[in-house]
DNA sequence: CATTTTATGTCAGTCTTGTTGACATTTCAA
DNA sequence: TTGAAATGTCAACAAGACTGACATAAAATG
């Protein structure tokens, strides 16, 4: 059928990568439906305890970067301080998050999960990881590498840096 | 090294796939950051015209399945009819979407994009596809296959069926 | 030391998008 | 004819984002 570049068995060079509109649409829809699945399990746990996705995100990154400042969290989450503050306030009131005044700079507030906070984080993480693990197992290790490669390439420039910084220590 | 099932060249059996917590967390965060990038470009176009993501989703799937009924769209999008109706009403008022009474079953309403609607769809699709295309090009064809494999495995059972049904005609 | 900038918190109001519940209409099907 | 299905609509509510304005404490800078 194709008159150009016959007998290309494995990977064509990037310039010759065939990307039909249909393939791209499929990718877009895959993102949409997969993200629904991705959030479904934690959402259920959160609802039981009267929290939302916004709380999950805060908890996740406070766990990931213990002692992070409010400003840093603001940047990672990409929301306004008013929006984050509403979430943080309830987490602090409920004693899931603990605040420490900065030693060097006493304007800064450093955020940590309490034991209770870690409990919830673990529950959420387990639920979400379970699905991720199943998906990984089902797709195989090569697919996993490709999955992350595409996702990373899809991020905004500065967020990719943030993402990389979060993980480069343990690479 | 492996005592069981030797000489497995490509994918190790699922039980032997090493998945550290760190790898799983990385995948979770990749999804989070990538989804931000995924929606960033269309969001900007939508804001200029006074629409939101909900409008985008409706437009996308009406374009994808022209003549779809309200009920079908409801199922694909996974929202309540009241929520969808608010969005549809404005799209119909603005003449981006056209409604046809069903020929066979006159209770059904079939939805189509008008020329204006297709224009917006194209603009949104171009923006989103451009990023997807760049990501695909950057990651390479093998990565793309893996990307879709993992995403499909991450979907809820019934949504995966919906997703598959949307594309199987042109497979 | 005075001033400005930074980090944080807070109040008030708005918007989008989701929800539930109740009810009406038209049309098909039994 | 009666009931179920597909759709639309009203009202009320909640989460979570936004803007704008303002307050405080502490650091940094002149």
Describe the protein.
2 copies of one chain form a homodimer. Chain A has about 170 residues and is mainly alpha-helical. Chain A has a domain at about 25-140: Orthogonal Bundle (Arc Repressor Mutant, subunit A), CATH 1.10.10.10. The first copy, chain A, contains 7 helices and 3 strands; from the N terminus they run H-H-E-H-H-E-E-H-H-H. A 3-stranded antiparallel beta sheet of chain A has the order 1-3-2. In chain A, a hairpin with a 7-residue loop joins strand 2 and strand 3 (about 110-115). In chain A, helix 1 (about 20-50) packs antiparallel against helix 5 (about 115-140). Chain A is globular and about 55 Å long. The N and C termini of chain A lie far apart (about 45 Å). Residues about 1-15 of chain A have low confidence and may be disordered. The structure holds a DNA duplex (30 and 30 nucleotides).
Termini of chain A, distance in Å?
45 Å
User: What is the H level of CATH, i.e. the homologous superfamily of the domain at 24-139 in chain A?
Assistant: Winged helix-like DNA-binding domain superfamily/Winged helix DNA-binding domain
- What is the string of helix and strand elements of chain A? HHEHHEEHHH
CATH architecture of the domain at 24-139 in chain A: Orthogonal Bundle
Percentage of residues in helical conformation of chain A? 55-70%
Principal-axes geometry of chain A comes out as globular
Subunit arrangement of the protein: homodimer
- Count of strand segments of chain A: 3
Helix tally of chain A? 7
Helix/strand-derived category of chain A reads mainly alpha
Kindly state the mean pLDDT of chain A as a whole number? 90
CATH class of the domain at 24-139 in chain A: Mainly Alpha
The largest interface is:
A-B, 63 and 64 residues
What name does the CATH topology of the domain at 24-139 in chain A carry? Arc Repressor Mutant, subunit A
